[in-house]
Amino acid sequence: MGKDIPTKAGQAYASARENQYVRRLIEDEELRDSLAAAYFSGRKAYDRVTTSRAGVADSVTNDRKVKRELKNATDALKDATERLREPKRKSHPFRNLLAVGLLTGGLVLVFSETARKTLLDTVFGAEEEFVYTSTTASDGAPQTNGTPVSD
Q: pLDDT tier at 147 (50, 70, 90 boundaries)?
């Protein structure tokens, strides 16, 4: 066979390598442990049910050890399915609250003149009313460039 024609084993390898679930199974030790625990618990329950003198239905409903092993198997399978799913993004409630607060505060400042004035007064101090008074003596005659105007 030539190099251009991939073998079935090569195709299977490439397909398995591209499969996200297979990759997770290979990389995630806890996932493998969960699946193994589910298998062994299920196997113990099955062995106990098949060797029991009572019927299968009676063993499953009345035997505490069978119930415990089945519960262990289901818990391990639940854990395995959660690990197989896409990882959830961590929630950041404080950061989200901060972002909403900043956005709300910005909108309030944009649309409320009194809020802007209050913020500016708080940050930079209250505005002082400025009344202009001339420091030059006025003798009652109008001046132009410092020289009295004569009539």
A: low
pLDDT at position 1 is: 47
Give the domain extent around 29. Answer: 8-84
Contacts of 41 (CB under 8 A, 6+ apart): 69, 70, 72, 73, 76
- DSSP codes of every residue in 66-130: HHHHHHHHHHHHHHHHHHHSPPPPPP-HHHHHHHHHHHHHHHHHHH-HHHHHHHHHHHH-PPPP-
d(CA 38, CA 116) in angstroms, rounded, equals 63
Are 102 and 78 part of one and the same domain? no
Is 145 or 13 the better-scoring residue by pLDDT? 13
Instruction: Please check whether residues 29 and 63 belong to one and the same domain.
Output: yes
**Are 35 and 98 within one domain?**
no
Q: How confident is the model at residue 40 (pLDDT cuts 50, 70, 90)?
A: very high
Domains of the chain: total: 2
Shared domain check, 24 and 80: yes
Q: Which residue has the higher pLDDT, 139 or 16?
A: 16
